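User: Could you check the structure of this?
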Amino acid sequence: MIKPDLTLTVAEDLGKVHFVGIGGSGMSGIARLFINKGYTVTGSDVRESDNVLALRALGARVDIGHDAANVGDADTLVVTGALWQDNPEYVLAGERGLPVLHRSQALAWLIQKHRLVSVAGAHGKTTSTGMIVTGLLGLHQDPSFVNGGVIESLGVSSAAGADDLFVVEADESDGSFLLYNTTVALITNVDPDHLDHYGSLEAFEAAFVEFAGNASELVVVSSDDVGAVRVTAHLRAHAQAASPSIVTFGEHADANVRVHSIVTDGPVRFTVAWNGADYSAALRIPGKHNAINAAGAFAVLVGLGFEPQAALDAIAAFGGTERRFELHGTVGGVSVYDDYAHHPTEVAAALSAARTVVGSGRIIAVHQPHLYSRTKLFAQEFADALETYADQTIVLDVYGAREDPEPGVTGALVSERFQDSDKVAFVPDWQDAADYLAGIARDGDFVVTLGCGDVYRIVPQLLASLTRVRG
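Assistant: Sure, the predicted structure tokens are below.
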């Protein structure tokens, strides 16, 4: 994989900009903002997608497939970290001596001269970013933003606003969130992840300490997550006169913004205690974790000076983002959802949210493990989460993304760790998996595909098999 050179000086004018992997949610959002600024944008990706079509409609030339010829007369290359170093477009840029920017560097360049709200955390940052943006818009603000997923009510993952506020989902996976000149930092959690990059839990948490310490005004941080608590303790122990203010949020009794009275039988309802007063809200989306995400977004908005109840009411209008418990269809009484969850904690949260709205039906998880390293490290944790929160699980094979296959590491590492083998099946072939699902599904069941790879692409097969059997 390509890691960003955090020491690289970025030119004031980037000329014609070519995006390699332009179709991803983050990359397409950044490309859209470059187009809005009047830049000539080209790009390439491995397949057609809605993001590709949208960028073409805005005037970008996007080629399908990676080829050196795609670079054309570009002056700057923007790449995603998931790119292989033998990518022909990346190789050609090196031969020509073109500046090559990691997507985080391109985003940092866009953010210049704005007051930046950066949202980081192993989970919840896409939803929390969407809540903050939705809240600001509901409060009659006009922020710029780049999110890791399309915000349902807006239909886009990024936009250029007229205000000085800029809200971004900050990626901690490769350390690039340290690039940003952050004004307000939100840390949703510091649950161990991306240890393939950091090497140790200590290094992972140290990066969050640095990220939070770089904020110039405010740090909003979870009171419930043990890693976040350690980060907060370090920040307070080393506080100086110029250190940012710290506001904690969560269910913990000592949280500055405390969530309580959470009701999860459907779209989640809850109350937030802040500065001696209670403020209540009902979201449009389910899940206890989303009540806590909303509390973090609330803390950011009141920290920016907005009136508490108005801020919470504006956040409550958030309707979700793509690939976060997104309904794709119902066939014969069986509903098929897709979710981006790719860490055991995220899987547990997604499935527990599904449990609150499935009623008397069952939950059938279709889990695609992501990365060989993560699968090997967390196989037992994934099995525990899936067995606890799903009634039945179908495990697909590993989506390797930026990693080479590792001998012996397959989806079977997860399925073999279930205590009850009757609750799980390892089915690496997608059509076989779709047919297996159709054979076990019952009226009222929820099917939830889980993973941040390409598992969403199995959804049409699932719906087709359900139609053949139940339609």
